[in-house]
Structure formats: structure tokens, C-alpha cells
Specification:
single chain, about 375 residues, alpha/beta, Rossmann fold, 6-stranded mixed sheet, 4-stranded parallel sheet, 16 strands, elongated, Amino acid/amide ABC transporter substrate-binding protein (HAAT family), transport, BCAA_transport, amino-acid transport, Leu-bd
């Protein structure tokens, strides 16, 4: 682990060898990969776990020709921008990180100027541009998967309800695009202040939709809420004139880690997207074996970023620099399942779909499928 935030001066870049304990070979030049992680500041604990995951990825996907160099962002946009500049000056060829959308936007400015690829941890799809790949599970990825499964179950009308904010706005854009592509009616979208009464929001949605009747067929409602608010909103829907069924509740990937949602009877059978459970279990087992602790969720994204960066830098030479390093279009076996980078900065992820099962583990309804690949 790197020094804690109380260190008297900013930490020097830490060099991580290809295999822990392996002999160094200073005479052989190595391809450098920069890790823009928050090793100090409020997210330092996450940074330490991210570094662990990166070491695991380097061990599994790298070789002795690759050197990881940590650059502390301090968890701030200014720190991320400076870390990117330092990485460029230090000769790094590709960046894994930073953590947040704000840090990514700041680090992307010097990275783009140097044509240095950035594999960020954020799920903010707005950061995606040629050369910058947000690796978090984006709102569009989540909508696409539950929309597909909803369609396969006969749902032809969709709606969205959630608090105002960038995440819900991206969900709405993705849902409208999916409906247009399938020639379906445009979905009703209700956005409300974060502290708004679930009952009032449910009534507003009911007014937009009209009463959901059996004759109109099932309605799929994507609910961008979690915890107690998801429970309260779901309970308010029948009182607002939207009975369950025919209404079908659809959630977001955050429901996979939500104990309130998992135990709520009114949400029984609600569908939500999530990573490949088998891949995740295997990653967590390898992480625990290596570091003696369970990884936080973000460690899986750090593993993917570092693994992709190691794969890109492996065997690279002067003829493959800049964005040409990135393995665009190829399938990568990540911590949460398969993913693929596209030239425009977007990322495709294989997501499963699960059903809430109060009193027991969620049931997998559809296995993880990477867009463009057939189900196995």
C-alpha cells in the first residue's frame, strides 16, 4: 500500500513490477502504464483497493515488459489533470483511471493533447470520446439490457421515473433511443427533485400514462430509485392507479447491492441488469486469495482498466503509439464479464438480467450477453 494522506509530501510515483517479488531488469526498457488513482484524500481507501486490483490484472494480463506507475490524483479534478501531465512527461503510453467523471474530464484535456489513451472508472457516458473510454456500467448499457428482456417478455410500452440529475437524464435518453429504434411509442418520463414525495411522483406518472389497463398490455417502468425510496415508490404505484401487474417494474444495476430492494415483497419479480455473477465470483475469489480481503465494487472496474492497459502495452513498439495501442473491437474478459471498446469511446458490456426474490438470492432471468455476440 502507498503512504496515507498524512504523508508530509506528495508521494512519489510507485513502480509495480509484472510479478510481485520478481527480479527487476533495469537494463530492459519497459512500456509504462500510468495508474491515475486517489492514493490520498477522501477516496484513499478505494485507491488502495484499486491498486490491488491493478496488480492482479498486471499479473494476469501483463508480462515483464510492462511497468505500472501510480500517479496520485488526490481525488480531485486538479489532481487528476496534474497526474495526467506527470504521466505524459514520465513516458507513460496509456492511462488506467481516474475514478470520477469530474476527474476524467480534467485528465482528458492533457491526455487528448498527447493522444494518450484514457481508460477511466466513471460510468458517465458523456465522457466517452475517441481516446477516452468510461469503463463503469453506464445508464445506456443498463437500459439496453432491461429493454431487450422486457421486449422479449411482451412489453411494448415503457416509462421512466427518477430523481433529477445526470444519471436519470442519461437513462431517459437511452430509453427514448431504444423505443425509437424498435418503433415503439415514446416513453413517459417523470423527473422530480430528489426529496420529492414518491406518492406525488407516482401520481404525476399516472397522469401522463393514464390508467394502465389489461387491454393496453403490460407497461415496463424503469425506476431510478433505490433503498427506502424504491420501496415507497413501488408501494405508491397501485394507489396512484398503476397496479402491479400489468405494470412491470424494472430497476438499475445498483439494485444488485441493495439489501432493502432485495427484501421488499412489493418488488418481487422486478427485473434489473447486473454483471455476470460467475465472472464476479471468480474475480472476488482471486482478489481475496491475493490480498486477504473482499474487494469493493470499484475494484472490478480498476481491474478491467489495468488489464486492458496491460494488454495494450504488451509487446508495443514505436509503430503502435497513441490511440492505436488500444485493443478496439476485441473482446476482453473483465472482472464482471466480457466487454469491448469501440473507436468512439463507448464501451459494450455483457450484462445479465436478474429478478428480485424477497427472502432469497436474486434469480438470473437472462445470462450475460455482449452486444453483437450470440447467447451461449
Amino acid at each position: 500500500m502507498l503512504p496515507a494522506a498524512c504523508a508530509p509530501q506528495p508521494p512519489r510515483p510507485a513502480f509495480v513490477g509484472a510479478v510481485p517479488g520478481a527480479a527487476l531488469a533495469p537494463e530492459a526498457p519497459r512500456a509504462r502504464v500510468a495508474l491515475l488513482f486517489p492514493m490520498t484524500g477522501p477516496n484513499a481507501a478505494l485507491g488502495a483497493a484499486m491498486l490491488n486490483a491493478a496488480q492482479l490484472a498486471l499479473f494476469e494480463h501483463g508480462n515483464a515488459d510492462i511497468e505500472f506507475v501510480t500517479q496520485d490524483t488526490g481525488g480531485t479534478p486538479a489532481g487528476a489533470a496534474q497526474a495526467a501531465r506527470t504521466a505524459i512527461a514520465d513516458g507513460s503510453r496509456i492511462v488506467a483511471g481516474p475514478l470520477t467523471a469530474a476527474e476524467t474530464a480534467a485528465a482528458a484535456i492533457p491526455a487528448r493533447a498527447a493522444r494518450m489513451p484514457l481508460l477511466a472508472m466513471t460510468n458517465d457516458a458523456a465522457q466517452a470520446t475517441p481516446g477516452v473510454w468510461p469503463l463503469g456500467v453506464t445508464p445506456a448499457q443498463q437500459v439496453r439490457r432491461v429493454f431487450e428482456v422486457g421486449m422479449s417478455q411482451g412489453i411494448r410500452r415503457f416509462a421512466l421515473a427518477g430523481p433529477q440529475g445526470a444519471f436519470t437524464q442519461q437513462l431517459a435518453l437511452a430509453l427514448r433511443a431504444a423505443a425509437s429504434q424498435q418503433g415503439l411509442p415514446q416513453p413517459a418520463v417523470v423527473l422530480y427533485p430528489g426529496a420529492a414525495s414518491p406518492m406525488l411522483a407516482a401520481r404525476d406518472l399516472a397522469r401522463q400514462l393514464g390508467a394502465a389497463s389489461e387491454g393496453e398490455g403490460p407497461l415496463g417502468l424503469i425506476l431510478a430509485e433505490g433503498g427506502e425510496r424504491a420501496r415507497a415508490f413501488a408501494a405508491a404505484l397501485p394507489e396512484a392507479g398503476l397496479p402491479i401487474p400489468p405494470l412491470r417494474l424494472l430497476g438499475t444495476a445498483s439494485w444488485g447491492n441493495d439489501s432493502v430492494v432485495a427484501a421488499e415483497p412489493v418488488l418481487d419479480g422486478a427485473l434489473y441488469p447486473g454483471p455476470d455473477a460467475t465472472a464476479r465470483i471468480r474475480f472476488e475469489a482471486r482478489y481475496r486469495a491475493a490480498f486477504g480481503a473482499s474487494p469493493p465494487r470499484i475494484a472490478a472496474i480498476a481491474y478491467d482498466a489495468a488489464g486492458l492497459a496491460a494488454q495494450a502495452a504488451r509487446g508495443s513498439d514505436a509503430s503502435r503509439l497513441g490511440y492505436a495501442l488500444v485493443p478496439v473491437g476485441t473482446v476482453f474478459e473483465g472482472a464482471d464479464g466480457e466487454l469491448r471498446l469501440l473507436p468512439d469511446g463507448t464501451v459494450q458490456r455483457a450484462l445479465s438480467v436478474y429478478a428480485v426474490t424477497p427472502g432469497g438470492p436474486a434469480r438470473m432471468i437472462e445470462p450475460a450477453v455482449l452486444p453483437g455476440l450470440p447467447a451461449s
